[in-house]
Amino acid sequence: MAYIPTLKTKYNEEILPALMKEYGYKTVMQAPRLKKITLNQGLGKAAIADKKVIDKGIEEMTLITGQKAVATKSRKDISNFKLRRGMPIGVRVTLRGDRMYEFLERLVTASIPRIRDFRGINDKGFDGKGNYTFGIAEQIIFPEIDIDKIDRIQGMDITFVTSAKTDKEAMSLLKQFGLPFKNQQK
Questions:
Q1: pLDDT at 186 over 50
Q2: What distance in Å separates the CA atoms of residue 143 and residue 161, rounded to the nearest whole number?
Q3: Cα dist from 46 to 55, 77, 85, 129, whole Å
Q4: CB 179 within 8 A of CB 121
């Protein structure tokens, strides 16, 4: 029997029926679902000064997600920052399918509770089309990262791309998955 992530099963058995009831969808295809999760880490000036920073960023992002990260390259020259077109300036990963659900489960159960002085994630990160982005200040909240081997603390942005038509539907979906929003109004 093939392995199915816990959150994928939860979506099909609990979240989907709840969303269909809440919004009155006629078919399961109308209900919002999580399409992908993207992680992006801009390494900026450090990447320009030291090329090893990009390699370290790729290594850490690969550890966190379980999928090979790729370097993002600059699109244009900016002389004030000593930046040339095509220079690596960041790291990104796009997760879909089972890896996406596994990462989301680790994020909600293990990583977010490790954030210092945590009072919930901000609910202002919706883009109007049902996608949500929030930032993490330190990569050390992930249990996969060994704190002793860290050269510098780096932040990252995590984007949840959903098939929801509105931010309200997307927020309902993400709340059902267990994301702890600050303002928990219904």
A1: no
A2: 24
A3: 12, 17, 16, 34
A4: yes
